[in-house]
Write a structure and sequence with these properties.
This is Adenylosuccinate lyase. The chain is elongated and about 105 Å long. Strand 1 (about 150-155) and strand 2 (about 160-165) form a beta hairpin. It has helices spanning about 5, 10-15, 20-25, 25-45, 55-60, 70-80, 85-95, 110-145, 165-190, 205-210, 215-225, 245-270, 295-320, 330-355, 365-375, 380-390, 395-415, 420-425, 435-440, 450-465, 470-475; strands spanning about 150-155, 160-165, 275, 360. By secondary structure, the protein is mainly α. Helices cover about 65% and strands about 5% of the residues. A two-stranded antiparallel sheet has the order 1-2. A two-stranded antiparallel ribbon has the order 3-4.
Length: about 475
């Protein structure tokens, strides 16, 4: 049996998530990023006058990626030192001996751990944003295609006035646009911890530069630039504030709320047999009931969305329970929470893209359901028509009330079709408008401005929101689920 089958692995990486997101939070990427941070610190310190040789810099540049031998050395060092950062400082020094004495110079462990986390969060948000834009694009195409297809609306999950399939989709799209905004804000607001020292006072760096405050400020700014951030947080303790994690996971949890609502709607529509998620030729819906087409993709979205909500609470709790300049009770927690949050959001987006690329619509089922309910909804139009033909509104209302109750009794108690309109046709009172009844029951006259709302929304809101992502969207391939 292989090691992969003999030990627990998170389903997020082994079963569901994209390779891109799983790799970002891998040990290989983590320790590679630590080495880049040590390199950037050494480059900036050299530029500002510290005695760091070009040979040291070149050796560090040449060994930014760890091989299997390096991982083995690091593992042995960590067993001995009980400190992961110092284990990797020593390991880096074995392949960059000219730099061994200056790696991590003046820094605390959080220089690499916290700054690396901020780099991972920034990159992960960018990955999610591209995928979210793809989901929005796919759903906007679906909304446009079905902009005028009448569907029964529901309030309290009870039949209500008609809407259209496209209009309902715009309700999902609007929330996804807000998520696009929220994740973009989270990415653009993200700062860098920079070089702040053991308690955030930069005392060690002030010592290195013989009390030269300007050089310490320049060091912080230069490392921040080398790492691709526009600014560093102006003050920090040993760590960057864990409120940053809570803010980022808040945006992810809010997206989870959108995804859960969208997929819940699709699960209900699947039960109504109006809209279904993709169902592959050989797919099995139930091990016992062969006829079933369970909405497993949307169920997966709902399941993972709830997990995403819970992770935000974890981040909030961690942020609120830090003591003074830092405690270490956040470390093990964050090693789990941060990767899981992004991997979970990644899986949800991948699944939503797959769903949005293959949704199946059943207009005849919708038309049949509309036909069952529309006669009741048309009663007001019928009353208005008979009044225009010279009838009395109160008398017409009473006639319709009696006929409606008769038809409703047949539907509810005997399971028969709604025959209200036939009853209206046969009643002599409504003879003056008999020729108008078919027109009064045309579903397209009950959807209001839904098609026009879809057109305006897609043109004025969705199109501008997707404009910055057009290059990325051209590269996004059709989403295939691993399982």
């Amino acid at each position: 049996m292989s090691d992969a089958q003999d030990v627990y692995q998170t389903p997020l990486s082994s079963r569901y998530a994209s390779q891109e997101m799983a790799h970002l939070f891998s040990p290989a990427m983590r320790f590679h990023t630590w080495r880049k941070l040590w390199l950037n610190l050494a480059i900036a310190e050299q530029e500002l006058g510290l005695p760091i040789s070009d040979e040291a810099i070149e050796q560090m540049k040449a060994h930014l990626y760890l091989d299997e031998a390096q991982f083995s050395v690091a593992a042995e060092e960590e067993k001995k030192r009980r400190h992961d950062v110092m284990a990797h400082v020593h390991t880096f020094g074995t392949v960059a001996p000219a730099a061994a004495g200056i790696i991590h110079l003046g820094a605390t462990s959080c220089y690499v751990t916290d700054n690396a986390d901020l780099i991972f969060i920034r990159e992960a948000l960018q990955i999610l944003l591209k995928k979210l834009a793809a989901v929005i694009e796919r759903l906007s195409n679906f909304a446009s295609q079905h902009r005028a297809l009448p569907a029964l609306g529901f309030t309290h999950f009870q039949p209500a006035q008609l809407t259209t399939v496209g209009k309902r989709c715009t309700l999902w799209l609007q929330e996804l646009l807000w998520d696009l905004r929220n994740l973009t804000r989270a990415r653009d607001d993200l700062g860098f911890r920079g070089v702040k020292g053991t308690t955030g006072t930069q005392a060690s760096f002030l010592t290195l530069f013989n009390g030269d405050h300007d050089k310490v400020l320049a060091l912080d700014k230069r490392v921040t630039e080398l790492c691709g951030f526009s600014y560093a947080y102006p003050v920090s303790s040993q760590t960057y504030s864990r409120k940053i994690d809570a803010d980022v996971l808040g945006a992810l949890a809010s997206f989870g709320s959108t995804a859960h609502k969208l997929s819940t709607d699709l699960r209900l529509l699947a039960n109504l047999k109006e809209v279904e998620e993709p169902f592959e030729a050989g797919q099995i819906g139930s091990s016992a009931m062969a006829y079933k087409r369970n909405p497993m993709r949307n169920e997966r979205v709902c399941s993972l969305a709830r997990h995403l909500w819970a992770l935000q609470q974890n981040a909030l709790t961690t942020a609120g329970t830090q003591w003074f300049e830092r405690t270490l009770d956040d470390s093990a927690n964050r090693r789990i929470t941060l990767p899981e949050a992004f991997l979970t959001a990644d899986v949800i987006l991948k699944t939503l893209q797959n769903i949005s690329e293959g949704m199946v619509v059943y207009p005849k089922v919708m038309a049949r359901r509309i036909a069952q309910e529309l006669p009741f909804m048309a009663t007001e139009n019928i009353i208005m028509a008979i009044v225009k033909a010279g009838g009395d509104r109160q008398e017409a209302h009473e006639k319709i009330r009696v006929l409606s109750h008769q038809a409703a009794k047949l539907v509810k108690e005997e399971g028969l079709e709604n025959d209200l309109i036939e009853r209206v046709r046969k009643d002599p009172y409504f003879a003056p408008i008999a020729g108008q009844l078919d027109g009064l029951l045309d579903p397209s006259t009950f959807i209001g401005r839904a098609p026009e709302q879809v057109d305006a929304f897609l043109e004025e809101w969705v199109k501008p929101a997707l404009e910055p992502w057009q290059t990325d969207l051209k590269r996004v391939e059709k989403a295939e689920l691993n399982v």
